[in-house]
Amino acid sequence: MTIRLTTAAAAIALLLGGNWAFAGDKPTDPQIAHIAYTAGVIDVEAAKQAIATSKNKTVVEFAESMLRDHESVNKQALDLVKKLNVTPEDNDTSKALSQAAETKRSELAKLTGTDFDKAYVENEVAYHKQVNGALETLLIPSAQNAELKSLLETGLKVFQGHQQHAEHVATELK
Amino acid sequence: MNAAVNPLGSAILALLLGTAALVVPAQAETIEVTIDRLVYAPAEIEAKVGDEIEWINKDALVHTATVKGGAEVLLPAKKSGRLLLNEPGSFDYVCRYHPNMKGHIAVGP
Ligand SMILES: [Cu+2]
User: What is the DSSP string of B40-108?
Assistant: First the structure.
């Protein structure tokens, strides 16, 4: 449990703790776009792992809804950056997020049955909570372009919904 | 078929329908609720038994209108769905996939 939360927390600490590898003290729009997109891809990958592993109908349905929503939001993000002629820029926060997700994925790969289900759903709660925190306190306030800001705000509402959905599923699994 | 092209037939039909609308006191209604960026609008609805609710989902996301322990209407991305209200009562509903979306229906007899 402690170890599980530590990896995701470490990446987000980098995101929130002012330990920025950015030129200024805030991320730029191309960096924000990259971070938001990466955060979505990570949850899509996690969902695919859950769909392949879990035998629990509620967990699989939850994972399918994560897959569907994050792909939809990321498609909107891609359409927007194309329209704005912005090229998403890789950065240390995106890299740290991806690395933490990879660690988590291999941790989860060792689990099966209800152990897997519980660990996956708990991580979904923690992950969405942390991404939402980053969106609220850093990414949305830093975004310069109004359309990017608006998409991030809608994304925040979607992910807050996911967090509550994950919390409900976690309660059901207890 | 003939009545549709016969002007007299159409006029009589219109007259009959018009009269019916005047005579029947409580015509069942369709109440529209729009979903845009994860918000049901209006969030609060007053209806009566026999009315229908139509949710129009403008988002590129799948939503639902799910009454706790009751009916559920699936609302695919950019599509709409309907629910016939057949019992009076006060119902809170949410989206199953995004439980932060909340609405309320008061159904009078
Ligand atoms: Cu929804």
Answer: EESSEEEEETT-EEEEEE-SSS-EEEEETTS-EEEE-TT-EEEEE--S-EEEEEE-SS-TT-EEEEEEE
Range of the domain at A79: 28-173
pLDDT tens digits, one per residue of A19-70: 444 556 789 999 999 999 999 999 999 999 999 999 999 999 999 999 999 9
The arrangement of strands across the sheet holding B72-75 comes to: B44-48, B102-108, B89-94, B63-67, B72-75
CATH, residue A161: 1.20.1260.10
In this prediction, residue B80 has a pLDDT band, given cuts at 50, 70 and 90, of: very high
* Structural domain count of chain B: 1
Give the chain B residue whose CA is nearest to the CA of A154.
B37
Distance A15 CA to ligand 1 centre (A): 28
Question: Which residues in A lie closer than 8 A to residue B97 (C-beta atoms)?
Answer: 65, 69, 161, 165
* B49 lies within 8 A of chain A by CB: no
Question: Any idea what the CATH number is for the domain that residue B54 is in?
Answer: 2.60.40.420
Best mutation target among A72, A73, A150, A169 (most B Cβ atoms within 10 Å) is A72
How many domains does the structure of chain A reveal? 1
Task: For chain A, give the number of residues.
Answer: 174
Radius of gyration of chain B (CA): 18
Residue A13 lies inside a defined structural domain of this protein: no
Q: Is B50 on the interface with A (CB under 8 A)?
A: no
Backbone angles phi, psi at B35, to 5 degrees: -115, 120
Predicted-complex ipTM score: 0.85
Summarised one tens digit per residue, pLDDT across range B13-35 is: 444 444 444 444 568 899 999 99
Those residues of chain A that have pLDDT short of 50 are 1-6, 17-21
